[in-house]
Amino acid sequence: MQWRIIAVLATLIPIIIIALQFDIQLEDLLAIGLVPFMMAFILMMSKLVLQGVKFAYIAKSYTKMAGSATKLCGVRVGAEFIKFSTPMFVGAEFIMIYYLHKRKVPPSQSAWIAFVDIVTEVLGAGILSIMAGIIAVLMGAYTIGVIVLLTSISITAIWTVLFFLSARRNFRVPKSLRVLISRVGGERGEHYTKEIDKWLDGICKTSQKHASSKRLTRVFTNSLIMSIASWILYGLSFFVIAIGVGYQIGAFDSTMAVMAANAIANLPITVGGSGLAELGIFGYLNNANPFDFQLDEGGIEWDIIVGWRIATYYIPIVITWLLLVKLALSKVTRADIKDET
Predict the structure, then answer these.
(1) Which among 39, 57, 58, 35 has a CA at the least distance from the CA of 47?
(2) What is the pLDDT, as a whole number, of residue 260?
(3) What DSSP letter does each residue of 179-218 carry, written as one string?
(4) What sign does the dihedral 17-23-25-29 (CA atoms) show?
(5) 10-residue stretch averages of pLDDT, the chain, 341 residues long
(6) 267 DSSP assignment
(7) Which residues 6+ apart lie within 8 Å of 5 measured at CB?
(8) Closest C-alpha to 132, from 47, 236, 44, 259
(9) Which residues are CB-contacts of 136 (< 8 A; sequence separation ≥ 6)?
(10) CA neighbor of 118 nearest in space, from 85, 88, 93
(11) Helix, strand, coil: what percent of the chain each, to 5?
(12) DSSP letters spanning 33-79
């Protein structure tokens, strides 16, 4: 986990550069006020908790061995640390699978539960991000709009197609990628390839088993609704920061700006989208010239963006780390399994 700590520290570099470049002082951030800052933080944590509730709901719908809903929720929130500290926000699904495996949930079921969770999350974000991209294009912000649309449509399409195709066919690691992994990783690479094939096979078989069930339709629909609601909470976190300092933006526009920034932050360039999220939201708001990052005299956009990023990323990453270590990575004893089932 030491490299994770290094990765998190690396995320500070872009925001430090932004602060220096635009002369953002501590008093500028303090001017936001404690109440708006805390409201933004609470909205972000509410988003993470709602994601946790969704994960617990999915897990409880498919197995009785998953444990208590409270612990499942905490594990899912803790798993966000992995997303926060990797490019493209990937990795949380492996923590979910790992925890369920410790609970003696069969590998195919563990993978299926995590798969449904991640697909509904990506689809929920994709719907809102695509809306943001379309609105940007209609408003004349073609550059930002096209980037957002290309990113969000491609990521959403990949996961959605995988989900629905998994009910019709079995997936394996592509031959070209298998050869590359074997050459680079040797025997260990071949071992990991075989494990991935087993994981994919388990997902596909479980998907085919549940494909035509009414329960899947109900679980997927409810999970998607919770995902969309959680992303809206994330969008409102910028709104409460902005109105706290008198910046004129509506709740809907705030949500669209945040989801556009989230789509851009998904580009696999920086850890946790650090720097990309900040530039993305500024570019979306400054649609006349998205690459002109300078402000008119007295402009406060960068103060709001940096304050928002601290409240919704840098503080939550500490909390998710603690939950990850305390819940997801802790040992599960037989007594725990007996008490919680």
Answers:
(1) 39
(2) 93
(3) HHHHHHHHHHHHHHHHHHHHHHHHHHHHHHHHTT-HHHHH
(4) negative
(5) 58 64 64 87 96 95 89 93 75 85 86 90 95 92 90 90 80 77 77 76 79 84 96 96 86 94 84 78 73 49 84 90 82 55 52
(6) S
(7) none
(8) 259
(9) 142, 144, 145, 148, 260, 284, 287
(10) 93
(11) 80, 0, 20
(12) -HHHHHHHHHHHHHHHHHHHHHHHHHHHHH-S-S--HHHHHHHHHHH
From CA 30, how far away is CA 300, in angstroms rounded?
Answer: 13
Per-residue model confidence (pLDDT) at position 171:
75
Residues 6+ apart with CB under 8 A from 291: 143, 283
pLDDT score at 335: 46
DSSP state of 291: T
Tokens representing residue 48 in the block: 């993470």
Instruction: Tell me the two tokens of residue 72.
Output: 């499942």
Nearest 10 degrees: Cα torsion 154, 156, 162, 165: -100
Angle CA 307–313–317, to nearest 5: 140
Query: In this structure, what token pair is assigned to residue 157?
Result: 């399409």
Closest CA to 83 of 11, 175, 189: 11
In this structure, which amino acid lies at residue 326?
A: K
pLDDT of residue 297: 42
Q: Environment class of residue 20 by beta-carbon count within 10 Å: exposed (0-12), middle (13-18) or buried (19+)?
A: exposed
DSSP state of 144: H
